[in-house]
């Protein structure tokens, strides 16, 4: 392969948000690229980009993200920089990515997926089932709120945002007795052993579509980035996300919607589980399909149609 590799004088510019998790993901991407091509860290430049979603003044701490309109809230400025050439690749949590990318950009490189499960975090309780009736729990996620209320209608769910440290402080001062975060983020930040938590099985809380997966976006017409990313791409993650994201797309969903989905591979067989909920958890529909891994997107669309049929017309009408 004739490829001009980046050098310290002409580094590959890696765009990312500045949060601790985003930076950990950007460093992992750089380290995998450096290892794959035998390059020094100096051949890469990590460029931190502030997004609307990071601008605290835009977001009152108690205002649910959905009210601000979160389609592209954390990605718009990064994608603009990518199109303008200010960066060469952009590292994202796939869970936060819309199902379609802007013209001129492609998102077809995934790193090996981390733990897909949600973590139950609480200094005083062993798990969801052990919480006494009426317990206050905190989350900012519409999906988790709906799932929690669906399984435990007796709980009170309060809006809970901010970084891990802020949340732990709120647990300590009694604002809530428990909160929930992705295992993947905790692991990638090296926090898994340092926080009182247990991983929840997907049967107890089915994770968000693409949870635990990192995707790397590039310009369509950039062969260097294309060829470099091909070397660190994980095809198993791609197979699983094809099914999950087709499921999400067919539901016309985004991270504003209480939707959960998880595909798992067993050899050449793909098992897809999905769930859709009303925001207050009073209605929840779930199902699963298994089929050949090569037909993941068909499986995703089929499961979405099955669940929409179960739920009946107008199930998502509250979104409009
Ligand atoms: N929406 C925020 C977000 N986006 C990705 C992660 C965690 C990492 C991942 O799921 O890949 C999180 C925080 C969380 O849910 O705990």
Walk me through the structure.
- This protein is α/β, with parallel strands linked by helices.
- The protein folds into three domains: 12-111 and 213-233, Periplasmic binding protein-like II (D-Maltodextrin-Binding Protein, domain 2), CATH 3.40.190; 118-199, D-Maltodextrin-Binding Protein, domain 2, CATH 3.40.190; 244-310, Porphobilinogen deaminase, C-terminal domain (Double Stranded RNA Binding Domain, 2-Layer Sandwich), CATH 3.30.160.
- 31% of the residues lie in helices and 22% in strands.
- It has nine helices and 13 strands.
- It has helices at 20-37, 65-68, 76-84, 142-151, 164-172, 183-188, 223-232, 235-250, 296-311, and strands at 12-16, 44-48, 89-93, 105-110, 118-121, 136-138, 156-158, 178-182, 197-199, 214-219, 259-266, 269-277, 284-292.
- The strands form three sheets. Strands 2-1-3-10-4 form a five-stranded mixed β-sheet, with helices on both faces. Strands 7-6-8-5-9 form a five-stranded mixed β-sheet.
- Helix 1 (20-37) crosses helix 7 (223-232).
- It is globular and about 60 Å long.
- The protein starts with 11 loop residues before the first strand and ends in a 9-residue tail after the last helix.
- The model has no long low-confidence stretch (mean pLDDT 92).
- The chain binds ligand PBG.
- The ligand NCc1[nH]cc(CCC(=O)O)c1CC(=O)O binds at residues 93, 95-96, 181-182, 184-185, 211-212.
- Ligand PBG binds at residues 93, 95-96, 181-182, 184-185, 211-212.
